[in-house]
């Protein structure tokens, strides 16, 4: 049976973890929940190059501070439309994320507008790609001025 949950704090501060390979398993994975602080303060992505994070396609919830302080995620964070909830500060201070891909979402979920600071501390110049007709504004997803230059690409 496939893993359905990565528990709260499962890999918190496990500095030896350099990568998690969700991309290769994202179609067949049964993973539905990635717990609170599951990968917080790890070195995931510290592989010597640009590293992307693809959340598996059946994940419904990403816990609070799940990927907080993951300084080595430098590429794309791809979040599928199966995700119905993202906890507060899920990606806080993961400053080098270049792009957040939510292009599979038909509309921006309500939780993105609840001042959860999901991407607070992500670097200026980062991009969000969305197919939604609704636009995400920087103050809706972050509490600081770092996201003033976000580009919304509704392609």
What does this structure look like?
The chain is mainly β and 155 residues long. It has one helix and nine strands; from the N terminus they run ββββββββαβ. The longest helix has 4 residues, at 138-141.
Strand order of the largest sheet: 3-5-7-8-9
Please tell me how large the radius of gyration is: 14 Å
User: Strand count, sense and closure of the main sheet?
Assistant: 5 strands, parallel
Average predicted local confidence, pLDDT: 76
Share of residues in helices: under 10%
- Taken from the alpha-carbon principal axes, the silhouette is globular
* Distance, first to last CA: 37 Å
Structural class: mainly beta
Task: List SSEs in N-to-C order.
Answer: EEEEEEEEHE
In terms of DSSP E residues, the strand content is 15-25%
Give a summary of the structure in a few sentences.
The chain has 155 residues and is mostly beta strands. It is 3% helix and 15% strand. It has one helix at residues 138-141, and strands at 5-6, 33-34, 53-54, 61-62, 76-78, 85-86, 99-102, 127-130, 151-153.
